[in-house]
């Protein structure tokens, strides 16, 4: 797996909470198991203690995205370095599914939350250092505050998904149409 792909772990973890909508999809061990399944990790060792641990990491990673998106790269990097220090990465060379040898970031001895946090932090660090902190974003479509990594060629991504982009564009169109009809 390419190391930058591990940033998806951070994005998926942070996006389990939608503060603008008041929703939280990380409340139970079953929620943790769904999060793990979404990134293709086994959920065999999920413990009750993983829930609050991942929620705490989620808050820290959200602040990395928020600080980066709001032009505070030093704060974003400081928070991310704290996550990296607390959850060190344990790389391992592996080969599976007929693929050539490659690196996975994992620690089979660490707990689920610790292993997930280490991988998410490292993936986000790879993206931040290769693309720049300005490529970590918060969705511009209210009330969505989901995060994303902008890997677009022209650095123009503003929304977390096509759904949010479409919703925002339709809202602008309707507002423009309403303003014209009021004139």
UniProtKB/TrEMBL annotation:
Q: Where is the Zinc finger CGNR domain?
A: 135-177
Question: Which SUPFAM superfamilies does the UniProt entry name for this protein?
Answer: Jann2411-like
Pfam families reported in the protein's UniProt record: ABATE (PF07336), zf-CGNR (PF11706)
Q: Which domain of life is it from?
A: Bacteria
InterPro entries assigned to the protein according to its UniProt record, in alphabetical order:
ABATE (IPR010852), ABATE_dom_sf (IPR023286), Znf_CGNR (IPR021005)
Q: Fetch the Gene3D superfamilies from UniProt.
A: Jann2411-like domain
PANTHER family under this entry? Answer: BLL6575 PROTEIN
Q: What is this protein called?
A: CGNR zinc finger domain-containing protein
